[in-house]
Amino acid sequence: MKGIILHGGHGTRLRPLTHTGPKQLLPIANKPMSQYCIESMRESGITDIAVIIGGSGASKVQEYYGNGEKFGVNLTYITQDYPRGIAHAVGLCKEFIGNEKFIVFLGDNILKKNLSELKENFLTSDSAATILLCQVDNPTQFGIADVKEGRIIKIMEKPKNPPTNLAVTGIYFLTPIIFDIISRLKPSWRNELEITDALEMLLEEGHKITYHTVTDYWKDTGTPNDIIHANEVILRDMKPYMHGKTEENTIITGNVMIGENTIIKSNSKIIGPVIIGNNCMVGPDAYIGPNTSVGDNSNLVKCNIEDSIIMPGCKIDCDIKIRKSIISYNSEIVFKQENKDNKVFLLGEGSKISL
User: Fold this and answer.
1) N or C, which terminus of the chain has less Cβ within 10 Å?
2) pLDDT level of residue 345 (50, 70, 90 thresholds)
Protein backbone atom coordinates (compact mmCIF):
# COMPACT_ATOMS: atom_id res chain seq x y z
CA MET A 1 0.00 0.00 0.00
CA LYS A 2 1.18 3.52 -0.81
CA GLY A 3 0.48 6.78 0.96
CA ILE A 4 -0.32 10.38 0.09
CA ILE A 5 0.15 13.38 2.39
CA LEU A 6 -1.44 16.70 1.46
CA HIS A 7 0.94 19.51 2.38
CA GLY A 8 -0.61 22.44 0.51
CA GLY A 9 -3.19 25.12 1.30
CA HIS A 10 -2.78 28.71 2.42
CA GLY A 11 -3.45 28.30 6.16
CA THR A 12 -5.38 31.58 6.23
CA ARG A 13 -6.88 30.89 9.67
CA LEU A 14 -3.37 30.61 11.10
CA ARG A 15 -1.94 33.87 9.82
CA PRO A 16 0.49 35.46 10.56
CA LEU A 17 2.06 32.12 11.58
CA THR A 18 1.74 30.86 7.99
CA HIS A 19 3.02 33.91 6.14
CA THR A 20 6.50 32.41 5.88
CA GLY A 21 5.77 28.69 5.56
CA PRO A 22 3.07 26.01 5.33
CA LYS A 23 0.89 25.32 8.34
CA GLN A 24 1.81 21.62 8.28
CA LEU A 25 5.36 22.53 9.35
CA LEU A 26 4.14 24.35 12.46
CA PRO A 27 5.47 22.43 15.48
CA ILE A 28 3.42 20.45 17.96
CA ALA A 29 5.56 19.25 20.89
CA ASN A 30 8.61 20.45 18.90
CA LYS A 31 7.81 18.35 15.83
CA PRO A 32 6.13 19.51 12.59
CA MET A 33 2.53 18.33 12.54
CA SER A 34 2.97 16.60 9.17
CA GLN A 35 5.76 14.49 10.67
CA TYR A 36 3.13 12.79 12.83
CA CYS A 37 1.38 11.76 9.59
CA ILE A 38 4.59 10.29 8.17
CA GLU A 39 5.31 8.41 11.38
CA SER A 40 1.75 7.08 11.54
CA MET A 41 2.09 5.66 8.02
CA ARG A 42 5.55 4.25 8.69
CA GLU A 43 4.38 2.51 11.87
CA SER A 44 1.66 0.77 9.84
CA GLY A 45 4.20 -0.40 7.24
CA ILE A 46 3.55 2.25 4.57
CA THR A 47 6.87 3.71 3.44
CA ASP A 48 6.33 4.76 -0.20
CA ILE A 49 4.69 8.17 0.18
CA ALA A 50 3.83 11.05 -2.14
CA VAL A 51 3.78 14.54 -0.63
CA ILE A 52 1.60 17.12 -2.38
CA ILE A 53 3.24 20.54 -2.13
CA GLY A 54 2.52 23.97 -3.52
CA GLY A 55 2.87 27.67 -2.86
CA SER A 56 5.71 29.63 -1.30
CA GLY A 57 6.41 27.05 1.41
CA ALA A 58 7.04 24.12 -0.94
CA SER A 59 10.81 24.46 -0.78
CA LYS A 60 10.74 24.42 3.04
CA VAL A 61 8.88 21.10 3.01
CA GLN A 62 11.48 19.53 0.72
CA GLU A 63 14.31 21.06 2.72
CA TYR A 64 13.01 19.57 5.97
CA TYR A 65 12.01 16.09 4.80
CA GLY A 66 14.44 15.55 1.90
CA ASN A 67 13.98 12.14 0.31
CA GLY A 68 12.50 10.82 3.56
CA GLU A 69 15.46 8.59 4.41
CA LYS A 70 16.04 10.07 7.86
CA PHE A 71 12.37 9.44 8.66
CA GLY A 72 12.43 5.82 7.48
CA VAL A 73 10.33 6.40 4.35
CA ASN A 74 10.73 7.10 0.63
CA LEU A 75 9.19 10.43 -0.39
CA THR A 76 8.07 11.60 -3.84
CA TYR A 77 7.05 15.25 -4.25
CA ILE A 78 4.14 16.22 -6.49
CA THR A 79 3.31 19.89 -7.07
CA GLN A 80 -0.21 21.30 -7.02
CA ASP A 81 0.00 24.73 -8.70
CA TYR A 82 -2.87 26.21 -6.69
CA PRO A 83 -5.19 24.91 -3.94
CA ARG A 84 -7.85 23.28 -6.11
CA GLY A 85 -9.27 20.91 -3.52
CA ILE A 86 -8.37 17.64 -1.84
CA ALA A 87 -9.82 15.53 -4.66
CA HIS A 88 -7.76 17.45 -7.22
CA ALA A 89 -4.59 16.83 -5.19
CA VAL A 90 -5.38 13.12 -4.97
CA GLY A 91 -6.00 13.03 -8.71
CA LEU A 92 -2.46 14.29 -9.33
CA CYS A 93 -1.16 11.03 -7.81
CA LYS A 94 -2.71 8.62 -10.32
CA GLU A 95 0.61 7.67 -11.91
CA PHE A 96 2.33 7.40 -8.52
CA ILE A 97 -0.36 5.06 -7.15
CA GLY A 98 -0.73 2.81 -10.20
CA ASN A 99 -2.99 -0.14 -9.36
CA GLU A 100 -2.38 -0.20 -5.60
CA LYS A 101 -4.71 0.59 -2.76
CA PHE A 102 -3.57 3.66 -0.84
CA ILE A 103 -4.14 5.96 2.11
CA VAL A 104 -4.57 9.74 2.00
CA PHE A 105 -3.61 11.73 5.10
CA LEU A 106 -4.18 15.48 5.37
CA GLY A 107 -0.95 16.94 6.73
CA ASP A 108 -2.69 19.05 9.39
CA ASN A 109 -4.54 16.13 10.99
CA ILE A 110 -3.30 14.61 14.24
CA LEU A 111 -4.48 11.07 14.96
CA LYS A 112 -3.48 9.11 18.04
CA LYS A 113 -4.34 5.68 16.65
CA ASN A 114 -2.25 2.96 15.10
CA LEU A 115 -3.47 2.36 11.55
CA SER A 116 -2.04 -1.13 11.07
CA GLU A 117 -5.27 -3.03 11.70
CA LEU A 118 -7.34 -0.68 9.52
CA LYS A 119 -4.78 -0.99 6.75
CA GLU A 120 -4.79 -4.78 6.82
CA ASN A 121 -8.58 -4.92 6.90
CA PHE A 122 -8.81 -2.62 3.88
CA LEU A 123 -6.25 -4.61 1.90
CA THR A 124 -8.40 -7.74 2.19
CA SER A 125 -11.80 -6.06 1.81
CA ASP A 126 -13.93 -5.43 -1.25
CA SER A 127 -14.58 -1.81 -0.27
CA ALA A 128 -13.86 1.01 -2.71
CA ALA A 129 -13.04 3.20 0.29
CA THR A 130 -12.82 3.19 4.06
CA ILE A 131 -13.15 6.49 5.86
CA LEU A 132 -12.52 7.47 9.46
CA LEU A 133 -15.35 9.29 11.21
CA CYS A 134 -15.27 11.16 14.50
CA GLN A 135 -18.02 12.73 16.58
CA VAL A 136 -17.64 16.52 16.73
CA ASP A 137 -19.43 19.37 18.51
CA ASN A 138 -19.56 21.62 15.42
CA PRO A 139 -20.65 19.40 12.50
CA THR A 140 -21.48 22.34 10.23
CA GLN A 141 -17.73 22.95 9.92
CA PHE A 142 -16.91 19.50 8.50
CA GLY A 143 -17.77 17.01 5.84
CA ILE A 144 -20.46 14.85 7.45
CA ALA A 145 -21.50 11.22 6.94
CA ASP A 146 -25.13 10.21 7.34
CA VAL A 147 -25.06 6.72 8.82
CA LYS A 148 -28.10 4.46 9.16
CA GLU A 149 -27.96 0.95 10.66
CA GLY A 150 -24.17 0.78 10.31
CA ARG A 151 -24.15 1.87 6.68
CA ILE A 152 -23.13 5.19 5.13
CA ILE A 153 -26.03 6.43 3.02
CA LYS A 154 -24.80 9.94 2.20
CA ILE A 155 -21.72 12.17 2.53
CA MET A 156 -22.00 15.97 2.39
CA GLU A 157 -19.65 18.94 2.78
CA LYS A 158 -20.36 21.37 5.65
CA PRO A 159 -24.17 20.94 5.68
CA LYS A 160 -26.31 23.70 7.20
CA ASN A 161 -28.51 21.08 8.87
CA PRO A 162 -26.24 18.09 9.50
CA PRO A 163 -28.08 14.78 9.93
CA THR A 164 -25.36 13.48 12.28
CA ASN A 165 -22.31 14.79 14.11
CA LEU A 166 -20.00 12.25 12.44
CA ALA A 167 -17.27 14.27 10.77
CA VAL A 168 -15.25 12.81 7.91
CA THR A 169 -11.67 13.07 9.17
CA GLY A 170 -8.73 13.80 6.92
CA ILE A 171 -7.69 10.14 6.63
CA TYR A 172 -9.03 8.09 3.72
CA PHE A 173 -8.28 4.54 2.53
CA LEU A 174 -8.93 4.47 -1.22
CA THR A 175 -8.63 2.31 -4.33
CA PRO A 176 -7.70 3.46 -7.87
CA ILE A 177 -11.44 3.56 -8.68
CA ILE A 178 -11.37 7.06 -7.18
CA PHE A 179 -9.32 8.45 -10.08
CA ASP A 180 -12.12 7.85 -12.56
CA ILE A 181 -14.55 9.52 -10.15
CA ILE A 182 -12.26 12.55 -9.73
CA SER A 183 -11.91 12.93 -13.51
CA ARG A 184 -15.70 13.45 -13.69
CA LEU A 185 -16.12 15.76 -10.70
CA LYS A 186 -17.44 19.29 -11.08
CA PRO A 187 -15.92 22.11 -8.97
CA SER A 188 -17.87 23.14 -5.88
CA TRP A 189 -18.95 26.69 -5.02
CA ARG A 190 -15.39 27.15 -3.73
CA ASN A 191 -14.14 26.26 -7.21
CA GLU A 192 -12.48 23.17 -5.73
CA LEU A 193 -12.83 19.45 -6.32
CA GLU A 194 -14.18 18.22 -3.00
CA ILE A 195 -13.21 14.81 -1.64
CA THR A 196 -16.65 14.56 -0.02
CA ASP A 197 -18.24 14.96 -3.48
CA ALA A 198 -15.99 12.19 -4.81
CA LEU A 199 -16.99 9.88 -1.95
CA GLU A 200 -20.67 10.69 -2.45
CA MET A 201 -20.35 9.86 -6.16
CA LEU A 202 -18.77 6.53 -5.21
CA LEU A 203 -21.86 5.78 -3.13
CA GLU A 204 -24.27 6.91 -5.83
CA GLU A 205 -22.60 4.65 -8.38
CA GLY A 206 -23.00 1.59 -6.18
CA HIS A 207 -19.51 1.29 -4.71
CA LYS A 208 -19.05 0.14 -1.14
CA ILE A 209 -17.71 2.56 1.46
CA THR A 210 -17.02 1.28 4.94
CA TYR A 211 -16.11 3.35 7.97
CA HIS A 212 -14.40 3.29 11.34
CA THR A 213 -15.44 5.62 14.16
CA VAL A 214 -12.41 7.14 15.88
CA THR A 215 -12.60 7.07 19.66
CA ASP A 216 -8.92 7.89 20.12
CA TYR A 217 -7.76 11.49 19.81
CA TRP A 218 -8.21 13.19 16.43
CA LYS A 219 -7.76 16.87 15.65
CA ASP A 220 -7.95 18.90 12.48
CA THR A 221 -5.49 21.63 13.48
CA GLY A 222 -6.99 24.49 11.52
CA THR A 223 -6.89 27.20 14.19
CA PRO A 224 -4.39 28.37 16.86
CA ASN A 225 -6.59 26.91 19.61
CA ASP A 226 -6.61 23.53 17.80
CA ILE A 227 -2.80 23.54 17.69
CA ILE A 228 -2.47 24.49 21.35
CA HIS A 229 -4.90 21.71 22.32
CA ALA A 230 -3.05 19.12 20.20
CA ASN A 231 0.21 20.25 21.79
CA GLU A 232 -1.25 19.55 25.23
CA VAL A 233 -2.47 16.08 24.26
CA ILE A 234 0.81 15.02 22.65
CA LEU A 235 2.90 16.34 25.58
CA ARG A 236 0.74 14.49 28.08
CA ASP A 237 1.65 11.09 26.62
CA MET A 238 5.38 11.65 26.05
CA LYS A 239 8.00 9.88 28.14
CA PRO A 240 10.12 12.24 30.28
CA TYR A 241 13.85 12.66 29.71
CA MET A 242 16.65 14.93 30.87
CA HIS A 243 19.56 15.52 28.49
CA GLY A 244 20.42 19.01 29.74
CA LYS A 245 21.74 20.50 32.97
CA THR A 246 20.22 22.28 35.96
CA GLU A 247 21.69 24.86 38.32
CA GLU A 248 20.95 25.23 42.03
CA ASN A 249 17.51 26.17 43.31
CA THR A 250 15.61 24.82 40.33
CA ILE A 251 12.36 22.85 40.53
CA ILE A 252 11.36 20.33 37.85
CA THR A 253 8.23 18.26 38.36
CA GLY A 254 5.79 16.30 36.22
CA ASN A 255 6.27 15.02 32.71
CA VAL A 256 9.23 17.09 31.48
CA MET A 257 11.47 16.55 28.42
CA ILE A 258 14.68 18.60 28.24
CA GLY A 259 17.02 18.46 25.25
CA GLU A 260 20.78 18.37 24.86
CA ASN A 261 22.95 21.35 25.86
CA THR A 262 19.97 23.05 27.49
CA ILE A 263 20.55 24.73 30.84
CA ILE A 264 17.86 25.40 33.43
CA LYS A 265 19.31 28.29 35.44
CA SER A 266 18.83 29.20 39.09
CA ASN A 267 15.46 30.00 40.64
CA SER A 268 13.57 28.55 37.68
CA LYS A 269 10.60 26.24 37.85
CA ILE A 270 9.43 23.75 35.21
CA ILE A 271 6.03 22.09 35.76
CA GLY A 272 5.14 19.44 33.20
CA PRO A 273 3.99 18.41 30.80
CA VAL A 274 6.67 20.52 29.13
CA ILE A 275 9.17 19.93 26.35
CA ILE A 276 12.25 22.14 25.96
CA GLY A 277 14.45 21.63 22.92
CA ASN A 278 18.22 21.59 22.44
CA ASN A 279 20.63 24.45 23.13
CA CYS A 280 18.17 26.48 25.19
CA MET A 281 18.77 28.77 28.15
CA VAL A 282 15.88 28.90 30.60
CA GLY A 283 16.17 31.36 33.47
CA PRO A 284 17.21 32.67 35.79
CA ASP A 285 13.84 33.28 37.42
CA ALA A 286 11.75 31.66 34.69
CA TYR A 287 8.55 29.68 35.14
CA ILE A 288 7.56 27.25 32.37
CA GLY A 289 4.20 25.73 33.25
CA PRO A 290 2.04 22.90 31.97
CA ASN A 291 1.30 22.20 28.31
CA THR A 292 4.17 24.27 26.94
CA SER A 293 6.70 23.44 24.25
CA VAL A 294 9.89 25.42 23.71
CA GLY A 295 11.85 25.03 20.47
CA ASP A 296 15.61 24.71 20.03
CA ASN A 297 17.98 27.64 20.58
CA SER A 298 15.54 29.68 22.66
CA ASN A 299 16.44 31.97 25.56
CA LEU A 300 13.78 32.54 28.23
CA VAL A 301 14.48 34.83 31.19
CA LYS A 302 12.14 35.89 34.03
CA CYS A 303 9.05 35.03 31.97
CA ASN A 304 6.00 33.06 33.11
CA ILE A 305 4.58 30.74 30.42
CA GLU A 306 1.76 28.16 30.31
CA ASP A 307 -0.32 26.44 27.61
CA SER A 308 1.83 27.85 24.84
CA ILE A 309 4.12 27.02 21.94
CA ILE A 310 7.43 28.86 21.68
CA MET A 311 9.07 28.06 18.35
CA PRO A 312 12.86 27.77 17.83
CA GLY A 313 15.18 30.74 18.14
CA CYS A 314 12.98 32.89 20.38
CA LYS A 315 14.17 35.31 23.04
CA ILE A 316 11.85 36.35 25.86
CA ASP A 317 13.36 38.52 28.59
CA CYS A 318 10.63 40.24 30.57
CA ASP A 319 8.48 39.68 33.62
CA ILE A 320 5.19 38.93 31.87
CA LYS A 321 2.67 36.11 31.86
CA ILE A 322 2.18 34.34 28.53
CA ARG A 323 -0.89 32.11 28.21
CA LYS A 324 -2.43 30.15 25.31
CA SER A 325 -0.01 31.76 22.87
CA ILE A 326 2.00 30.72 19.83
CA ILE A 327 5.26 32.64 19.43
CA SER A 328 6.74 32.12 15.97
CA TYR A 329 10.33 31.42 14.94
CA ASN A 330 13.06 33.86 15.99
CA SER A 331 10.67 36.20 17.76
CA GLU A 332 11.89 38.52 20.49
CA ILE A 333 10.00 39.96 23.44
CA VAL A 334 12.26 42.11 25.58
CA PHE A 335 11.34 44.68 28.22
CA LYS A 336 13.62 47.72 28.42
CA GLN A 337 13.20 50.11 31.33
CA GLU A 338 13.72 53.15 29.12
CA ASN A 339 10.79 52.07 26.94
CA LYS A 340 8.40 51.55 29.85
CA ASP A 341 5.94 54.18 28.64
CA ASN A 342 6.54 53.95 24.89
CA LYS A 343 5.85 50.60 23.19
CA VAL A 344 7.24 49.99 19.69
CA PHE A 345 5.81 47.07 17.66
CA LEU A 346 6.63 45.60 14.27
CA LEU A 347 3.85 43.07 13.62
CA GLY A 348 2.88 40.79 10.78
CA GLU A 349 -0.59 40.78 9.24
CA GLY A 350 -3.24 39.33 11.51
CA SER A 351 -1.28 39.75 14.75
CA LYS A 352 -3.24 40.22 17.97
CA ILE A 353 -1.92 41.72 21.20
CA SER A 354 -3.68 42.00 24.55
CA LEU A 355 -2.04 44.26 27.12
Assistant:
1) C
2) very low
